[in-house]
Amino acid sequence: MSDNQHSTDLTTPGASQEVFADPGMPEHKHRRADHEPAADKRAELQVVVLFVISILGTIGSLIAYFAFRPDGTTDGTRFSTLTLGLGMAFALLGIGLAAVHWAKTLMSDTEVSEERHAQRSPDEVREVAVQKLQDGVKDSGIGRRGVLKGAALSALALFPLTIAVPLVSSVGNDWNVGKFRHTRWEKGMRLATDPTGRPIKAADVTIGSVFHVIPDVSEEERTSHEWITEKAKAVVLLIRLDPRDIESDQSPKGQTWSHEGIVAFSKICTHVGCPVALYEQQTHHLLCPCHQSTFDVANGAKVVFGPAHRPLPQLPITVDDEGYLVAQDDFDQPVGPSYWERLK
Amino acid sequence: MTTTTTERAAAGAADYLDQRTGIGHAVKEFARKTFPDHWSFLLGEIALYSFVVLILSGFFLTMFFVPSMALVTHHGAPNTMDGVLMSEAFSSTLHTSFEVRGGLLMRQIHHWAALLFMAAIVTHMMRVFFTGAFRKPRELNWLVGTLLLILGLGAGFTGYSLPDDVLSGNGLRITDGVVKSIPIIGSYMSYFIFGGEFPGDDIIPRLFTLHILVVPGIILALVGVHLLMVVLHKHTQYPGGGRTDKNVVGFPLFPVYVAKAGGFFFVVFGVIALMGATMAINNVWNYGPFDPSPVSAGAQPDWYMLFLEGSLRLMPGQTEYVIGGFTLSLNILIPAVIIPGLLFTFLFVYPFIEAAVTKDKNEHHVLDRPRNVPVRTGLGVAFLTAFIILALAGSNDLIATHFSLSINSITWAFRILFFVGPWFAFWVTKRICLGLQRKDRELVLHGHETGRIVRFANGEYIEVHRPLDEQERWLRVNYTAHRPLEIEPATDSRGVRRKGYKNERRLARLSRFFYEDRVEPVTPAELAAAHAHGDHDELGSSESHGEITSGTQH
């Protein structure tokens, strides 16, 4: 995009010009409003009308404010939102379109050319600038006072610690990341339905049914502030399969973690922790709706598709004397997404 | 009479101000500053204005939002939520929506403005990229812009989570999972963010502070820098007659751009208000307060986060490894950290790579037509293709349900497309650009087809071509077709190996990739030759001679 000064002379064929010449700005075309007083008047009227529309919009919005009180229903709120918003939109669009129309029809539309200057400062300015910096450096004597330089830099580098240390020590609460390993489940704790907290009898779980399960804790604990954090680790999906369909589960040799085809798996995806909630009865597949990791419940919740790597941890369960499902123990591994020291 | 009074008052006020601030200098400098006109320059303005709308509507919302995770029993509308235990954040969101008049409108305006803000940033960056507006002297402003893009993502993310509903809570949970996958410090990072285990009771107040103070504060500062640099550099302009790297052609700031740009702010605000009034968005009362157990299928993040979501969905899980007892979750790290890292790195370094392979030290103020830099345009389209494929993959469940397709095959198709698509898009785009350049040459040399068929006395038929007028011709010939860098031999004249030869050779290879295929603009000599030898446009050229000569007399 060089602005060359060559001239184009096509009358001499075979001329050796390398580049065309800039033809300059195209001819200016006048608008009707520039030379027709009627068009000018009309444009002015249009601008005025647009401003008036804006004023009407504001008035409409105020009327809507007083006329439509939200009544607490979704429809009422929607209607109030719609009327307030439409008034506001007209108020704004009226001003905006009026200003733009004014600029386009009535203000000058002759393009002007303004010179640019290189960003770089001229040599003499640079020289003076460099000289000033050098004077400053010399003045401070930073060059020959090495110890001073070191002390100044160290002080500056260290002082943020006065803020960072107290911040970092508290920002992660107790920094006890070992809590990832444990959930609220313990030996003998009953399995209860989520969210009502009703304990589940093994007999109530029919083949093919799915229960969303939480530990059977007191009502008080379930309504406490800390519960959500416990629940975030402890939620379990309980499924009863036909025992003949179960190829394998995660029970170690000599133990049974399931009960007559009833298996319980952590509901927290081993990918990034979404609740795995979509169960397909025909295939015994559990699908995580967030990233589509698919787990095979009949086969120890192994991953059959998607971005997760590990099976969902299995909660060892059995029944107590009254026939309620209870946990044999906590999970044998941390639930949820992987992290660096998970196996340590 | 009134005019003179007003004028006198204005003069008095101006004098008062100038004596104390010297504002006269600024007014003299800026009042009639020239800005070029083009619709695509409005994209950045939309971004700026939707940011202003975000601040205005955000201020309204902070008056009623309570950034607290304390458990309360909600009383009041909607009746589905009456008596439900929830966080104060969620309860106050419901209160704002149902009991504050205009509250829901402001929430919807705020959300739509955020979506528009990001869309405007992305399209503005596309305009800047494809027209080469990032070239010297604007490389630093490109970096500031890219930072603004990332901060915009941060603002959107922190704001989206504030209502503490089921959807946003699951979003945070995904964040927690991603953070935990970071080697060595992942668990501690998670504690750092959540103040303990997920979700804890700190995250909403922390996000609130980030969302209403830290992130918008930095955005505001960087927007200031961004605009200051625009003023410093003066705006770029599209190529055309009379527009060079040494001038800027357009309209004066006062009054034309004060009216146009000021008016455009109201238009943008008005359109967002219209969207907020008529289009429901994020009806959190349908989802309910955050609970770690439920999740709804078909949930989508806001559009600008879709690419991350899609990236997570595409990665096969086999890539989680245990090394020496430590777990390395590449199945999360690659899609959620490394891929976005690569995408942003491309944005950050591209201007410098192009400058290096072009060895171009000149200031550029006239924009490129995208076709005239085929490899840049191809790379840009390839980048967008990768972004769009990831975003579509983020909606793979909706694609599956809407088109009754298998989610597994869709995922596999996207996995393959992610690698093949950008490459193919690059190749096609580059070819289209070269084709368009050849078309330009063809037009300049032979003119437009007129559809007029003429039969000569000897029976020959020709179609008359109409030569281009000088403005159109200038548009099509006014560009530089850069050539690949040429490097000196590995050894100097005395047979000694030159230092830095290897780097130069690497750069030259890259330069060849950029500029090996090129179409040179037509030169006047070529045009003259075409006219002299052209047989079938003889008629046209004889007609045109007059026009061209008259053109050069301007």
TrEMBL record, chain A:
Family statement drawn from the similarity comment of this UniProt entry: Belongs to the Rieske iron-sulfur protein family.
Keyword tags: 2Fe-2S, Cell membrane, Disulfide bond, Electron transport, Iron, Iron-sulfur, Membrane, Metal-binding, Oxidoreductase, Respiratory chain, Transmembrane, Transmembrane helix, Transport
Rieske domain span: 233-326
Protein name, as recorded: Cytochrome bc1 complex Rieske iron-sulfur subunit
Provenance organism: Sediminihabitans luteus
Classification via Pfam families: QcrA_N, Rieske
Domain of life: Bacteria
PROSITE patterns reported in the protein's UniProt record: RIESKE
Compartments, record wording: Cell membrane
From TrEMBL, chain B:
Biased composition (Polar residues): 541-554
A Pfam family reported for this protein in Swiss-Prot or TrEMBL: Cytochrom_B_N_2
Protein EC: 7.1.1.8
Domain Cytochrome b/b6 N-terminal region profile: start-end pairs: 13-239
Residue ranges annotated for the Cytochrome b/b6 C-terminal region profile domain, each copy included: 240-435
Catalytic function, reaction form: a quinol + 2 Fe(III)-[cytochrome c](out) = a quinone + 2 Fe(II)-[cytochrome c](out) + 2 H(+)(out)
Any GO BP annotation: respiratory electron transport chain
Membrane topology category: Multi-pass membrane protein
Region (Disordered): 530-554
Main location: membrane
Class in the EC hierarchy, top level: translocase
Compartmental location: Cell membrane
Keywords: Cell membrane, Electron transport, Heme, Iron, Membrane, Metal-binding, Respiratory chain, Translocase, Transmembrane, Transmembrane helix, Transport
GO molecular function: metal ion binding; oxidoreductase activity; quinol-cytochrome-c reductase activity
Spans through the membrane: 42-66, 109-130, 142-162, 208-232, 253-281, 332-353, 373-392, 412-429
Protein name: Cytochrome bc1 complex cytochrome b subunit
Species: Sediminihabitans luteus
